[in-house]
Design brief:
- The protein has 21 helices and 19 strands.
- By secondary structure, the protein is of the alpha/beta class.
- The chain has a six-stranded parallel β-sheet. A six-stranded parallel β-sheet has the order 15-14-16-17-19-18, sandwiched between helices.
- The structure holds thiamine diphosphate (TPP) and magnesium ion (MG).
- Residues 376-379, 402-405, 428-431, 454, 456, 458-462 line the site of thiamine diphosphate.
């Protein structure tokens, strides 16, 4: 605890620093000037985007690759409403972000100040916590509480706005950073799950994003090895077990779900990605970091709530040992067969280009800890299947919120957090339109990253399904061959057009070695549809 005096921006910056925040994403607005002044004086880096949605996605991308709070500062009114989709994204993925808002002056509230609107009702349903700090003392208290809440399981976005006349100055005690606490699990629940594992011959484990957020990846791998259980991952769970681990699986999911005699889901909801938890009567165990995250299904075989690493290691400790080699080998042979089948499309010489050929060229050029971002439809579905993840926090997709347009913001956040890593954003030609102006942001901030546009001239993931269901499609066409590479060049970055399969590799090579952002615009086959069977509803 130290006493600091100054305006509320300085005090806010002090609190942010206590929590390890050294970067804030923003887009300028007069309501934020005092916060900016505090950050400048405290040495907190301010990074500006061309749209508040991208600033907020950059904060989320930062959080996703660091597991530390990402912070965005959005100006009052439209600045905040522009950030809403990205705040909801953080809510769906449990990403710890803090959104600071400007706000019209309280002293004149109700008389019609510029951008005067109460933001709290707008963000209440998509945040863990939303508050207004009306004076400097409240700024300190509320900001500390906000940062702590964002990082406390179950993590998520928090919102704090400050009216223009709420910045002090004042002399305030800055508290030490509040501790983040996780829940200790009930030992009986853990024992009950361990017993389930003991009774199972063919268990499977599904690990999701909260395993990553909860730093439980070592416990996951350790528990899987002791239990001899195959592991599948989704969302940010990807990479919590390296894709080349003998117990890591991705292609044999249907068989695993059909033949398993126990399905244990850890750190991810039983949502549309997991058949809403309905596996035709196979017993389901659900493990979550907080009670709010446990499925409402009344037919769960068992459940446990609390620190995921403690629970996983507790199960492994208590479960009787069992030989599951035959089960693991059964899935492995299916996995291997599926990978062998995919080889043909990865190497495809088809003209127009098969989208998977792009991955055939990209994958060998990726480092083990490359951060791969997927923003698009079919093009990204191929990446989800074909690009393996070996390191936690290295595959960022829109998650269950599914908001196109997050790619450039995530790339910005990821790069600034990890200046030494490869950053690759895979974008559909539809998706890139949402944040096209952020190419300028990437250039201005000298963001070393490779953007690959899978340019099929359509909203592929809408056009093909609509055709299948209705026999025709509407509003699903884009302009074929649009020169997104020239947009990048015009804005000051490196851009290339690729029209032949043999050109992809050399273009990627140049993109990886060029400083600053590069965009490789690959024209792909619009008739190619990702083969899918998922039920989204
Ligand atoms: C903000 C937002 N708007 C609309 C959608 C619906 N949507 C999902 S996939 C998709 C098509 C994406 O097209 P593109 O980025 O070109 O990728 P492609 O499927 O063609 O590979 C659309 C419009 C969405 N997910 N998010
Ligand atoms: Mg497209």
């Amino acid at each position: 605890m130290t006493t600091t005096s100054g305006h509320g921006g300085l005090l806010a910056a002090e609190v942010l620093k206590r929590h390890g925040v050294d970067t804030i994403f923003t887009l300028s607005g007069g309501h934020l000037f005092v916060i900016y002044d505090g950050c400048v004086k405290a040495g907190i880096r301010l990074v500006d985007t061309r749209h508040e949605q991208s600033a907020t996605f950059a904060a989320e991308g930062w959080a996703k690759v660091t597991r530390r709070p990402g912070v965005a500062a959005l100006t009052a009114g439209p600045g905040i409403t522009n950030g809403v989709s990205a705040i909801a994204s953080a809510q769906f993925t449990g990403s710890p972000i803090v959104v600071l808002g400007g706000r019209a002056p309280q002293g004149r509230w109700g008389t019609g100040s510029l951008q005067e609107i109460d933001h709290l009702p707008l963000v209440a349903s998509i945040t863990k916590r939303a508050a207004t700090a009306f004076d400097a003392a409240q700024i300190v208290h509320e900001l500390d509480a906000s940062l702590t809440a964002a990082c406390t399981p179950h993590r998520g976005p928090v919102f704090l706005d400050i009216p223009m006349d709420g910045f002090g100055p004042a002399e305030v005690e800055i508290p030490d950073r509040s501790a983040v606490r996780s829940t200790a699990p009930d030992p009986e629940s853990v024992a009950a799950i361990a017993k389930r594992f003991g009774d199972a011959e063919r268990p499977v484990l599904f690990a999701g994003g909260d395993v990553y957020w909860g730093f439980a990846e070592e416990a996951l791998v350790g528990a899987a090895e002791i239990l001899g259980v195959p592991v599948f991952t989704n969302g940010l769970g990807r990479g919590t077990i390296p894709a080349d681990h003998r117990l890591a699986f991705s292609r044999s999911r249907s068989t695993a779900l059909a033949e398993a005699d126990l399905i244990c889901v850890v750190g991810t909801p039983l949502d549309f990605r997991l058949r809403f938890g309905d596996f035709d009567g196979t017993p389901v165990v659900h493990i979550a970091d907080s009670a709010t995250e446990i499925s409402g299904r009344d037919d769960l075989a068992a459940s446990a709530v609390g620190d995921l690493a403690t629970i996983l290691l507790g199960i492994a400790d208590a479960a009787p040992s069992s030989d599951r080699t035959a089960w693991v080998e059964r899935l492995r042979s299916e996995e291997d067969a599926s990978r062998a089948t995919d080889q043909a499309m990865l190497e495809s010489d088809a003209d127009p280009i098969h989208p998977a050929r792009i991955y055939g060229e990209l994958i060998p050029r990726l480092d083990r800890d490359a951060i791969v971002i997927g923003d698009g439809g079919d093009f990204v579905s191929y990446a989800g299947k074909l690009v393996d993840t070996f390191t936690p926090g290295c595959f960022l997709d829109p998650g269950p919120w599914g908001c196109l347009g997050m790619g450039p913001g995530y790339a910005l956040g990821a790069r600034l957090a990890h200046p030494d890593r490869q950053i690759v954003a895979l974008l559909g030609d539809g998706a890139i339109g949402f944040a096209l102006a952020e190419l300028d942001t990437l250039v201005r901030h000298e963001i070393d990253c490779v953007l690959v546009v899978g340019n099929n001239g359509i909203w592929g993931l809408e056009k093909h399904p609509m055709n299948m269901i209705f026999g025709y499609d509407v509003v699903a066409d884009l302009r074929p061959g649009t020169r997104y590479d020239e947009v990048m060049t015009a804005l000051g970055g490196h851009g290339e057009l690729v029209t032949k399969p043999g050109e992809i590799g050399p273009a990627l090579e140049r993109a990886f070695t060029t400083k600053g952002p590069s965009l490789v615009n690959v024209l792909t086959d619009p008739d190619n549809a990702y083969p899918r069977s998922a039920n989204l509803a």
